[in-house]
User: Fold Iron-containing alcohol dehydrogenase family protein from Paenibacillus baimaensis.
Amino acid sequence: MNGVHLVMGTPNAYMQEVGLIHAAGEWIAKWGKRIFIVTGAASWESVNKKLTASLDRADIVYAYAVYEGECSYNENERLSAMVLEGTELIVAVGAGKVTDIAKKLSHDLKLPFIAIPTLAATCAAATNLSVMYTDQGHYYDSQVFLNNTLLVLIDTDVVAKAPPRYLIAGIGSTLATWYEASACSFDKRHNVPTISGLQAAKLGYDTIMKYGVTAIEDARRENASFALQQVVDAIVLCGGMVSGLGEDNCRWAAAHAIYNGLITLPQQALHGEIVAYGTLVQLILEQRQPAEINELLAFYKLIGLPVKLHQLGIDYPIEEAEKEHWMSAVLSSAGTIGNMPFEVTAEALTMAVEQLEKWE
Assistant:
């Protein structure tokens, strides 16, 4: 941002409530009556009858498209060609990549953006950026926009009925936010926005440590409890506010860079699961005290986050041919490893992964 600290702390409006999907049309209609919805197949299946009924009651004209699985520039072009003339709002119904591709679409078409998350797996609904991937699912770059989300609508009952694995992954991603923002801001000027971003990250961390276990237990019973509501806000709202307030001083660091590398390998893991593993590697790179790492490891094991590569579906040791490729992605200047307060070398990264794999 050329030295300018741009604060876009929160969406214009954020709402979380049990049963909110039934009133979605009423709220959307306050800003527009002609909308284009971007969604995922499973997400649409989970809410479309309730959502479309609310849109019909509000006399909202809508069209929708199911995205093809990646937040890529090619997918953005495909969706852009489907948006009808006269559309007033772009609406995302789904998880992180659905939200990011819809956000990119809204930016390119200069239309306001509304997010209706069906999972609490990321903070994408409350951030003013889109993480872009290749058509093969490898990290490409991130685009930061000068507009934040117009409206976030979260029905906690919908989140409670989603597979709990996604909630656990969102917890992993949000815990990473605290450690990454701390690393990223270490050698930066701690002005009020930066301090606010760090406090949002710590609030998210503290909320998850307090309510996380109960929230997961409640989600397994499809109970939209107070604990689950607190954790959803920690993941989506607190997570989004960190970079919204702290901007470049409080963005991602090694944990997300490691994610960018590991997704180049064959694996069967969610975004937050890989980021959670990357957080442990980051703490080792930072030479944190073993007691601190053990505390986080214990929490991971308690809730079911991965602590070893094989839990991500990645064989260890990584084959030499693949090792060079994933290391290159981690250390790429297009990623976030440069936000660490010290240089991270391939040798240091290799040693940190080896140490974690041996950690009891």
